[in-house]
């Protein structure tokens, strides 16, 4: 009798181990990579309050990574926080300033934001985000007086929204639009981004 009970208990335990609990895609920590389109627009003043003659813009490819944490408040509501780091390729903006040539070169950016989303179904999250953004920018002015270079960190804010779809219990994909305002020096420095991301959910 004892042997039968013991065998039954061992079989039940083995079955419990063999069937792991289903992971919650939108509940817990995650990391990911992103890529997409970036359009930067600059007008008025740049670094060191250097005025430019007209608005300039540049389109470029942006790549980056992110890490965050989702908290599932209930069956439909998800909130969380995320940190990201990115850089663009061939994204220098060139303008004129009082007869001189100005080159504005964004080096890299990072951001800290909060997300709030609604689960349309178990696999699809529609969300909005907002938070802090920072970009390291180098400006070069070439004039008759010589070449002047300046580097600075621009503080700003971002807002955006998108949709994220669970592909498996661990992998999800997102499509997102972001607007970032880095014009804290009295001028205009805006970024418009359309991004695709792949996340691994722990």
TrEMBL record:
The reply to whether Aminoacyl-tRNA synthetase figures as a keyword in the UniProt entry is no
Which UniProt keywords are present, listed alphabetically?
Membrane, Signal
* Name of the featured protein: Outer membrane immunogenic protein
Q: Which family does it belong to?
A: Belongs to the Omp25/RopB family.
| Major localization class | membrane
Which InterPro entries does the protein's record reference?
A: Beta-barrel_OMP, OM_autotransptr_brl_dom, OMP-like, OMP/PagP_B-barrel
Recorded GO CC terms? outer membrane
Taking every annotated instance into account, which residue ranges of this chain make up the domain Outer membrane protein beta-barrel?
10-202
Q: Which PANTHER family match?
A: BLL7405 PROTEIN
The cross-references to NCBIfam families, in alphabetical order and at most eight, read: autotrans_barl
Localization per record: Membrane
Which organism is this entry from? Altererythrobacter xiamenensis
The positions making up the signal sequence are 1-23
């Amino acid at each position: 009798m004892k042997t039968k009970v013991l065998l039954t208990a061992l079989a039940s335990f083995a079955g419990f181990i063999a069937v792991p609990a289903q992971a919650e895609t939108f509940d817990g920590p995650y990391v990911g990579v992103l890529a997409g389109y970036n359009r930067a627009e600059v007008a008025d003043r740049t670094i060191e309050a250097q005025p430019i003659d007209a608005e300039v813009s540049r389109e470029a490819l942006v790549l980056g990574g992110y890490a965050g944490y989702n908290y599932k408040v209930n069956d439909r509501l998800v909130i969380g926080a995320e940190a990201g780091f990115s850089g663009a390729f061939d994204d220098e903006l060139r303008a004129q300033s009082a007869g001189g040539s100005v080159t504005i070169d964004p080096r890299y950016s990072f951001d800290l934001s909060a997300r709030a989303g609604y689960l349309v179904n178990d696999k699809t999250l529609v969300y909005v985000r907002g938070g802090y953004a920072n970009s390291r920018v180098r400006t070069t002015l070439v004039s008759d007086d010589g070449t002047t270079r300046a580097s600075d960190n621009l503080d700003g804010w971002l807002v955006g929204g998108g949709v994220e779809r669970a592909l498996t219990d661990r992998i999800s994909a997102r499509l997102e639009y972001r607007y970032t305002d880095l014009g804290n020096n009295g001028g205009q420095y805006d970024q418009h981004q359309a991004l695709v991301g792949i996340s691994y959910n722990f």
